Amino acid sequence: MRVTMDLELKDIPGQLVLALRPISELGGNIVSVVHHRERKNPRGLIPVQIAFEIDETRVDTLVNRLKNDGVVVAQIGRERLRERAVVILVGHIVHSDISDTIAQVDGTGYAEVKDLAMSMPGIDQYSSARLIIRAMGKKELSDAIELLRNIAHEKGLLLIERVKTEVL
Fold it and tell me: Is residue 58 classed as helix, strand or coil in its secondary structure?
């Protein structure tokens, strides 16, 4: 899981190390650190933004360790689903139960349908649906696409994979 944290540090030597050490000790992988030394807040603390990857089960432990060390945790953002793909389904989508298709992807626990846009030109004509799929990682995204491939085959739908959003 990717996590972003907004921290507030005292303006004394060693504070940044004090904030970063627990992330490393808990197996986190730091992606970026933005230290705003020139922008102290009204309390005289220095805002620092940190992005890192860490096991989801360790985030609460990390926050407690930071607070016990006197680091102010101003905000936490968790990004569980990092990968994204756009696919298109074509066929009798409504009659083949699009809600079941979405439920199967969402039921994986590692991927979700985050957006759906449909076009239905007529009751006896094929419809099309653009789905935005979000997943925890590249492998999970690939697995979700494979699941959609199987669902489309079972329901007699055409799956157009990995549509670039710039084209839409």
Answer: helix
Using DSSP's 3-state secondary structure scheme, residue 12 falls into coil
For the chain, the C-alpha Rg in angstroms (whole number) is 22
Torsions phi, psi for 14 (to 5 deg): 95, -5
Strands in 46-53's sheet, in edge-to-edge order, are 29-35, 46-53, 2-9, 72-79
Strands (E), the chain: 2-9, 29-35, 46-53, 72-79, 83-91, 111-119, 127-135, 158-160
Alpha helices in the chain (DSSP H): 15-25, 59-68, 98-106, 138-155
Whole-prediction pTM: 0.61
The string of pLDDT tens digits covering residues 62-71 is 999 999 999 9
